[in-house]
Amino acid sequence: MRVQNERTVADGPRERTVADEPPERTVVGGPPERTVADGLRLAVRALVYAVLGGAALLAIATVVSVLGPMLAIDLYTPPVAAWWTVFTAVAVQGVPFLLLGTVVSAAIGAFVPERVFTKLLPRNQALAVPVAGAAGVVLPGCECASVPVASSLMRRGVAPAAALAFLLSAPAINPVVLVATSIAFPNQPKMVLARLVASLATAVVMGWLWARFGREEWLRLPKRSRTAHSAVGMKAFVAGLQHDFLHAGGFLVLGAAAAATFNIAVPRSVLDIFTGSSWLSLLLLALLAVVLCVCSEADAFVAASLSGFSPAAKLAFMVVGPMVDLKLIALQAGTFGRAFAFRFSSTTWLVAVISSTLVGWWLL
User: Fold this and answer.
1) Contact, 101 vs 297, CB < 8 A?
2) Distance between CA atoms of 314 and 235, rounded to whole angstroms?
3) Contact status, residue 168 vs residue 203, Cβ threshold 8 Å
4) Closest to 178 in 3D by CA, of 200, 211, 146, 205
5) Is pLDDT at 229 greater than 50 in this prediction?
6) Separation between Cα atoms, residue 337 and residue 326, nearest integer Å
7) 299 touches 181 (CB < 8 A)
8) What local confidence, expressed as pLDDT, does residue 299 receive?
9) Residue 43 above 80 pLDDT?
10) φ, ψ dihedrals at 267, nearest 5°
11) SS3 for 231?
């Protein structure tokens, strides 16, 4: 009896431990269910953010468009009324495309695996560059997100020339940008085609130039951190949507205000100096695109509002903007190094101007 009691006592903890295993397994099986629930909540939250954010911007722009001219009339300042008209026209037209573009960009960054690029791109750099450039048509992205995407592709084995071609083409020739351009320039299908051809040509030429003349010491790739892939799926989508929409929305407002100020504040006599010469007007808008930093989903509306300039000059504004502006130069300098940013940005600006000139002369 004593032996049996000792065995019972000795075996008791084991029996209780085994009996306790099912609840532990149930607990281990719980997180997938919670993960699904968390994903659904994040999806609903992202949808609410997108709808409310777009509705808020539209509401603000509408209220401003109504109160602005009334205030201008009360103050007896017609130029202020004209400023409000240009500002609200650019902002109201650009918000829907900005929202759609940021949603698509966040979805691609969160759900499209980076290994897709390495599998689809040819190993030969000369062939990989045009393929990567053309991928921008079907895989759109905001220009703010193109720099980290290109950096990640390089770390995963994609040739730098191909990654840089995708960096330039994705924010410039994606479907959202082309549709926005067609609406900003109604009954001008050649402007849409010209933007597609000039932007793609610039991206491909820059990729080939890097493949031929680029040096590894010019390109500084940051080390991958352990948290680089900590946010995936819906969490990455929500985070990307919040960042891109707020970031790009701010630049849209600034770009609309700058375009309205440019139209109203700059005397016509000064503009005549530039608009009288097709070369000077093209160079002026190419430089203005670098300074304004307008999001690619909305820059077509800003370009359309710049009255008095030639179609080729407006084309240069739309080609240069998504590829070379102050915020992109800063992002490239922080990601790839200042030496790379200076060489790459200045060369891209020159190639974009030449491409816009040739395509504009050909199509416009």
Assistant:
1) yes
2) 38
3) yes
4) 200
5) no
6) 15
7) no
8) 87
9) no
10) -60, 150
11) coil
